[in-house]
Inverse folding.
DNA sequence: CCAGGTGTTCGCCAACCAGCGAACACTTGC
DNA sequence: GCAAGTGTTCGCTGGTTGGCGAACACCTGG
């Protein structure tokens, strides 16, 4: 499987990141990764079609929020670009993740 | 002038806030208010039509990011809902504002 | 009362976005 | 080689968004 392209850490744009996070499905992806990195795309328990899911992963990847590497078999290994995000936007990811649990507990528990 | 309605602090939604902030003109408004509260809408140095500006203020207001009160004369006094945002989403606003200066310095200096 | 200044609202338009299914690509395993 | 499994891409659709100008509402000052 072709490796996908990712923005460099220093090219990560705040508007792209905020836009990527301003959507419940994508937020759930991020939140799930924050709890357990390295999952393939299909393991997020989101009730959307494959194509829609793939599009959401693409938005997150192109915003620089997640990294998608070719994993074993045909899976994509998704990881949060935690350190890079923290270096560029200190505290942002953590405060957003904390905010989600405050504002959208259903998502947090589901 | 009619007073405008604002969401209660506890009803502020993280997705609405992130969406509101994921736009350079609106971000500039927030950033300007962070530096100096209480300005009328026309004093933000944004090169957009009045109607577009008004729409952006509406998005920010309905998201709970800013408060718009009827000021002296016909002006709206815009203020950041800093304390309320901080209470609900601790650290979020500050990290976003800091992130903007990192990611969009042109906006910061303009 | 009328003019000037500030914002809001209303159409309108082009662009974007989230959703889907179908088809394709790629790897593993039989 | 072929089926199964996982993601991606493409085309399409409906809804939302951001932009504008024009018209209106409202207050202040002549």
């Amino acid at each position: 499987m072709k490796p996908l392209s990712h923005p460099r850490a220093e090219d990560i744009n705040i508007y792209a990141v905020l836009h990527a996070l301003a959507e419940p499905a994508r937020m759930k992806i991020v939140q799930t990764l924050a709890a357990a990195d390295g999952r393939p795309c299909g393991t997020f328990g989101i009730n959307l079609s494959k194509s829609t899911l793939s599009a959401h992963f693409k938005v997150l990847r192109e915003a620089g929020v997640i990294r998608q590497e070719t994993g074993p078999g045909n899976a994509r290994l998704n990881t949060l670009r935690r350190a890079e995000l923290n270096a560029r936007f200190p505290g942002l990811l953590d405060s957003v993740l904390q905010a989600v649990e405050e504002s959208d507990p259903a998502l947090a528990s589901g």
The interface with chain A takes residues 12-15, 17-19, 21-24, 27, 88-92, 94-96, 98-100, 102-104 of chain B (CB under 8 Å). Residues 37 and 79 of chain B are 5 Å apart (CA to CA). The first strand of chain B starts at residue 66 and ends at 70. Strands of chain B lie at 66-70, 76-80.
